[in-house]
Request: fold
Amino acid sequence: MRLTDDLAAEHEIIERVVGAFRTYVGRRIARTADAVDVPRFFRFFRLFVAGYHHDREESVLFPALTVGIGLPADRGPIPSLLAQHRELEACLDQLEPLIASASLDPAASAAVDALSIRYAHGLWRHIDAANS
Reply:
């Protein structure tokens, strides 16, 4: 199997988990889910998505695209995808402490909802761009 096939299969897993996360966020805001699953979701996002999947894109795929087909490393899709990785990580950094809070007041709930939408949509756009 080729790396691109592996990455595409990982994208499918990531998309399913992000969809489940959005459902969880809705339940968390409605107070029908407690914070017990927060560490599980963030472990997946930080270890699998950022630590494993994005690392393989950055350390294997992007250099192969630069060397193998001559994509420029300083402009175009590669720096854009790298910037998306950093933006997604920053979004997680903001979201995690808010959603893990024992009590979500209305302002925190609104922030959690907005950040989780930003993360999900950003990740879905990133996956679409990477698959392209």
About this structure: The longest helix spans residues 38-68.
